[in-house]
Amino acid sequence: MGKYMRLLHSLPPYNFMGLEPELSNFKNAKVAVLPVPYDSTTSYRSGARDGPRAIIQASRNLELYDDDLGYEPSEIGIATLDELEPSRSSPEETINRVEKVFEELIENRKFPVMLGGEHSLTFGAVKAFKKKYADLKVLHLDAHADLRDMYEGTKYNHACVIRRVKELCDVVSVGVRSMSKDEAKYIKENKLKIFYARDVKKWDIDEMLSNLKGKVYITIDLDVFDPSEMPAVGTPEPGGLHWYDVVEMISKISGEREIVGFDAVELAPIPYETSSDFLAAKLIYKIIGCIFAKK
User: What is the tens place of the pLDDT at every residue in 127-148?
Assistant: First the structure.
C-alpha cells in the first residue's frame, strides 16, 4: 500500500461520528441516522439540503466521550444510512418516502434519527410512529409555530408541518417567537400548549411533562437557537434559546419519558462558518447520549 493510500485508510470513516465498522454496523447498532438532503419548499434562505452532509462532516471531529454523561454514547452502535433521495415530483411524495423508511427502521427495532433537510420531513416520521403508538406525543422545538394550513400552494410546506402533525397527535411547542395572525388565532381557538421563548426563565418542566404523557417524538428546528449561536438556518429569529436551555430541557424530559426517535432539521450551512454545523452535530450526539444513558 502506497503512502497516499495509507493516508486515506487512516482517515475516520465517513459516517456520523466517524465510527469504525464494529460501532457503525446496521445489524448491531441501536441507532440509525437517516440523512435527507431536501429543501424544495424553503421560503427564505435555501441550503438545508446541504445540512445532513455538514452535520456528518462536523460530527467526525467530535470527542466520542461525553464528559457530562460519563460515557461514550457511540458504544451503543450508531449506523449511518445512505442519503434518502427526495422526490422531484411533489413534497408529499418526499414525505411518503420518509414515512416508509421510518416504518422499516421501527420494524427493525432501530432508534431513528433524521438529519434534515427542511422541516416538512418531520410529518413522514410522525406518520410512521403514529401507526405503532396510539399515545404518541410530539415535542416541537422551533422559532416558528409552523401551523399554517397551506403555504405557497401546498399543505406539505415546511411552514405547515406542525399543523399536519397536530392532525395526528398532540404537540407541545417550545421556543416559539414568530407566527402569522392566522396561526395565533388557531392556537387560541384550539388551546394549544406553547412554551414561548420570551418566557424561558419561567418554564416549568413538570408542566411540559404533564403534556407529554405517552411515547414522545422530538423534532428540532435548529432556528430554535438564538442566531448568535446558530446563524446557519433558513429563517433566523432573534431572541432564541441557548445551548444549556435546550440540553437541560431535553435531558430532563428524556429521563422521565420514553423518546422513540427525533430529528434535527433546517441547518443551512454557511461557507467557512462551521460553528453551526458543530453545534448541530454535538446536539444530536448529546441527545442520543441522554436517551440511552438510562438504558
Answer: 999 999 999 999 999 999 999 9
Dump pLDDT digits (tens) for 66-77: 999 999 999 999
Among 41, 70, 61, 253, CA closest to 157:
41
Residue 1 lies inside a defined structural domain of this protein: no
pTM of the model: 0.94
Residue 19 lies in a domain: no
Q: How many CB atoms lie within 10 A of CB 283?
A: 20
| Domain containing residue 111 | 24-293
Cβ proximity of 110 and 31 under 8 Å? yes
Query: DSSP alpha helices (H): ranges in 108-204?
Result: 122-132, 161-166, 181-190
In this structure, what CATH number is given to the domain that contains residue 87?
3.40.800.10
The β-bridge relationship of strands 216-221 and 111-116 is unpaired
Whether 116 contacts 266, CB under 8 Å = yes
CA atoms within 13 A on the CB side of 221: 31
Angle, alpha carbons 275-277-281 (nearest 5°): 115
Q: Model confidence over 209-231: pLDDT tens digits?
A: 999 999 999 999 999 999 999 99
Residue 82 in any domain: the answer is yes
Residue 177 lies inside a defined structural domain of this protein:
yes
